[in-house]
Structures are given as structure tokens and as C-alpha cells.
């Protein structure tokens, strides 16, 4: 027996796997702590490798619900460098925003995480002056975030919505949850979570998921092989891709299509994961024209390669896979709770009895909406939870 | 959190007996908090100590259950799983019988060699992936890419029976074996790309399929008498395993079936030819 070789083989007890994603929404809007989603994502530990984990939590800042909550990370190599970045950022904020309240994001320092940056949060409103007065608040904020992330060294805005926040870093997701004390300090009505297995870029705190802009966040399992094209297209619309990972483009594409262009998610899904031409050829005339127009207009936003994502928004959570479903995604409901996960077992762990479990079709979004999401309409809640694409054609 | 298995004392090395193990006393394992490796180590220990039946409760996502259970002496056992079996259930399965009281995830029967898997629920993607022998019965539906590269091997002929529907890419690159999709709820066969790259084996679909739903190299033909005999045999076995199903054999067989077979054993033989 070749002993040396054997012991070498035994080093690889880790399964070489993929990322994990998980989401839970209470469609009645009742809020719950991060404890359950931490448990669920921890059960998929083998999918990640401890090089990234993160959470998006909606409804966590009710006391500041009307203010934009900016979460900042200052990532310099030394403490003075991080403090310098903070100083520069604060000078910038003072010129562009009214800061109502700020504090260090509380962390449990007994939880070991590697190289944590300085983490701070600011509750702000935009101060639009001069020519900027014409801009919408959101346009203004997006522009200024892009300026921070691309121009202020070592400072990154990684969360910028109202009454929501992202928490992320380099560790297993459950460790990140403990580090930020998400099971003790916060209650949200919607949580999305990510366990990372970085494949193409180095792990760093800014590269962990979720990625977000305003209140839109994305957690992602897969690989966007069209990243170059997507990035080039998004840069034309003023999005600066600074975070060294492919998922960033999905977040900006979602912001461009859903917030700025106000397209319904059913259409957005067909832009990101369009049907193949052979399938379009078989559609009826009206649908064929729509799909052709989308592919012609938004070709550079096609997300090629395998992916499963959960997009979070205030009041809505959307699961989507690539059109031939090369990454897993399971959806389930139990009463008012809607779950989306990479694996069914992680849902069963925190909710053993489910009303319905299903595997969404590739390229077709599963949509969880909170009661009253669409202008307070009861009807949209009733139908909206498992809305199908057919309704818009 | 970690619960130790209640392993009954069985004399190590007691000779395996051939034939049914029905009535054998089951050893139970509580899988709560057990990691994949710990659970599979436990199963292997039990097999080697002569256990004939094992009941595993609180299974929640542990992977590869039933793998690493080959022995040269062909010890066999029955494994009952309660909970949600994790990915690659029954991977490389070698003659054992596994029953899941619940749903299974992706990759059930990955490169399975022989034995039987019964899922009293649904299965995820890549069900029966590269399976080369044995039988899998899934009560409800399954996800994408079932029977991906399923194959015949050394006289073995794998069989996959799915009670519900199958999603896209059923039988992709299929090289052998038999797949029967019963579509009890009548919702399947919206699926596309069935049999893409198929070059062996046969898929039977209850109901019909359109030409645009199958790969270019797939022939759709109505099931003939011999086909229906084979289907009926497996429908009987399916119903034996799932008495709770509210359809009779006659009701299922009252529908037409179609057969999907490859036009050629070498669909790409001309691809690089001049």
C-alpha cells in the first residue's frame, strides 16, 4: 500500500461543490430573526468553502424606515488606512447627503473571521443641489454609490436600501450570521442568504454575496460567462463594476431593468434567461414578436452560463435559473412563508411540513410577493405568489 | 445535537444470507446532526457486521447514502430512509434496496450498478444519471435531465419508472436502459429536448410527444404490443411499491404510450467526416 499517496488523498474530505442560496419570506409581513435562515444555510455547508457568506434582510430598520441605510466597509490593510478611508468617505457624505445617524455595525468579536474590515452604517437622505435637484433620489444615490465604490480607495457601499441591509464577509455564512448577530439583533420579513465557493476570483469581503443597489439584492450560484459583455453594456448606463466578481452584473441589470426601466419581472426573466431561438420559432406570432424584440434589444444582458439566483426587493423575492437549469433551485410554501433554496433538505430542516414543494422550470421566475405588494391589491397577493409568465402574453 | 446511532450488537463477520430479508430486525440510526461521512461510515459498519435492515430517521440532506456498500462477499441490506435524502442518493449502489419515505434531491442513482431505489415522493434533477443497472421507482415527478447517460452494461439493463412528469432533457445522451414516465397527473410532456443526443435504450411516455419536444436523433413511435407488455409489468411493480397511488393498472394502461428510440447508435458519426 502506498501510504503517502493514501494520506494525500484523504486530505480531500471536502466535496468540491458549488454555492448555496436560500431565501425565506413571510408574505404577511411578519418579521422573524435570522436564526432559521442561518440554520438552513449551515445545513448546506458542504456546498461552500468558507470563503464567503452573506445575508440580505428586509424590514430590519423600522425606526429609520424613511432613511437610506448605507452599509460601508473600509478595507485598508491597516487600521489607519481603514480610518483614513472612513474619513474620506465621511467628507464625501457630508457634501452629498444629510446624515441623520451613524454607528459602527455591531459585531461579535468572539466569532473568528479573517481580516474583517471596518464596518459602519449611515442613515441618510440625499441632498440634491443645483442641477441635481432634477434627479430622482434613486438616480442620485446610484450615481453617488458608483462614485464612492470606484473613486474612494478602500471604501465600499455594500448596502443602500431603506429599511433593509446586507451583511456579508469572508467566512461560512452561519459564521457571518453569528459575527453580525443576525439571530439576536435583527428581525426581517424577508431574508436571502448565500454560502460562497469562489471559482474565478479571490475571496474578499466586498466579493461576498449579496450584491445590492438600493433595495435590490442578488445572491447567486453559478457563473456568468457573459460577464464581459454584460459589464460593457451596463457601463454605458453608468454602472461601475468594482467588486471583482460576476454576480455584480446581475444586481445592476436588475436595477436597470426593474427600477429604471420599470419592466415586470416576467419580462426581465426573459431578458436575462431568454428562450432559445428554436423555442421562439414555435411561439405564436405575438409572443414571437415580443421575444424577438427582447433578444434584439437586450442581447448584451443575456446572462450566459449556469446560474440560480434569488433577487430580493422590498416586498418581493424572486428565484430564477438559467434557461436550461444548470443550477438547482427548489421552491416551497408553508402557510404564509415562501422558501427558495438550492436544496429541499435545508427548507425541511426549518419547516418539516410544507404545503407545496416544486422545481421551477429553467428561465421561468418563481415570485414570492408580500401581501399588498402591488398597490395594496389583495388579488395580486392571491395570484401573485406563483405567478406564471403566461399572464403577460 | 449529535445523536449516536442505536447500533444493535451483531457478531462481526456473520455470513450474509441470500434471499429476502423481510422480517429481519431493523437496526435504527438517528441521522439528526450526522454528517454525510459519519452516516455512510455507520452504514458500512452495519453492513459488515451482518445487519440486514437499517432504518434511518431524521435524514436531512446527507449525501451519497448507500454508496461505499460494495463487498466482495455481496453482503446486502435494506435501507429505509425517513426524511429528505440528500444529493447522489444510492450513488454506485451495489445490489441493496433503498426506500425513501419522503423526497429525494438531485442525482439519485448516480452510476448505480444494481439494486433498487424506491422514492415515496419526488426526486430532483439528474435522476438515474449514468445508471447502468438496477431499478428506480419514483412515486411522483422528477426534475431536469433524468436518465442522463443511462446505459446498458454487461447484460444489465437499468429501469427508471417515474409516476409523475419529467422536466426537460429527459434521457439526454441516453445509451441504454428503459425509462417509463407515467405522468399520473397529466402535467408532463411540456418538457423539451427529450432524448437529445440519445443513442441507445428506450423511453416510454404515457400520452404523446411532439416532434419539437425531442432531440433530432429521436424517433417517436406508438408503443406496440411487446412494448405495452413491458410497460404493464413495470406499472404493476410501481403500484406494488406505492399502494397509496389512486390509480389502477387498468386506468394507467388505458392511455396510449409512445416510444422514443434513437434513430442511430452513432448519431455523431458523420459530424467530423468530410
What's this entry about, in short?
The complex is a heterodimer of chains A (393) and B (274). In chain A, 32% of the residues lie in helices and 25% in strands.
Description:
The complex is a heterodimer of chains A (393) and B (274). In chain A, strand 11 and strand 12 (216-222) form a beta hairpin. In chain A, helix 2 (35-42) packs antiparallel against helix 12 (344-350) and helix 7 packs across helix 8 (247-260). Chain A has helices spanning 3-10, 35-42, 79-96, 137-151, 173-179, 182-185, 227-235, 247-260, 265-272, 277-281, 285-298, 344-350, 378-384, and strands spanning 20-26, 32-33, 53-58, 68-74, 97-104, 118-126, 155-159, 164-169, 187-188, 190-195, 211-213, 216-222, 307-313, 316-321, 330-334, 337-341, 356-358, 366-369. Chain A has a domain at 15-60 and 163-273 and 303-392: Glutamine Phosphoribosylpyrophosphate, subunit 1, domain 1, CATH 3.60.20. Chain A is of the alpha+beta class and 393 residues long. Chain A is globular and about 60 Å long. Chain B has two domains: 1-7 and 23-84, no CATH class; 88-262, Pectate Lyase C-like (3 Solenoid), CATH 2.160.20.60. Chain B is built from three helices and eleven strands, in the order βαβββββββββααβ. Chain B has helices at residues 36-48, 225-241, 249-253, and strands at residues 26-30, 53-60, 78-84, 94-101, 114-119, 135-138, 159-162, 175-181, 200-206, 218-222, 257-262. The longest helix of chain B has 17 residues, at 225-241. The model of chain B is unreliable at 1-20 (pLDDT under 50). The A-B interface holds A 13, 15, 43-44, 46, 278-279, 282, 324-325, 328, 330, 343-346, 348-349, 357, 359, 361-362 and B 36-37, 60-61, 63, 83-84, 86-87, 103, 105-106, 122, 124-125, 143-144, 167-169, 192-193, 212.
Q: What's the topology here?
A:
The complex is a heterodimer of chains A (393) and B (274).
Chain A: H1 3-10, E1 20-26, E2 32-33, H2 35-42, E3 53-58, E4 68-74, H3 79-96, E5 97-104, E6 118-126, H4 137-151, E7 155-159, E8 164-169, H5 173-179, H6 182-185, E9 187-188, E10 190-195, E11 211-213, E12 216-222, H7 227-235, H8 247-260, H9 265-272, H10 277-281, H11 285-298, E13 307-313, E14 316-321, E15 330-334, E16 337-341, H12 344-350, E17 356-358, E18 366-369, H13 378-384
Antiparallel strand pairs in A: 1-10, 1-16, 2-9, 3-8, 3-10, 4-6, 4-7, 5-6, 11-12, 12-13, 13-14, 14-18, 15-16, 15-17
Helix pairs in contact in A: 2-12, 7-8
Chain B: E1 26-30, H1 36-48, E2 53-60, E3 78-84, E4 94-101, E5 114-119, E6 135-138, E7 159-162, E8 175-181, E9 200-206, E10 218-222, H2 225-241, H3 249-253, E11 257-262
Parallel strand pairs in B: 1-2, 2-3, 3-4, 4-5, 5-6, 6-7, 7-8, 8-9
Antiparallel strand pairs in B: 9-11, 10-11
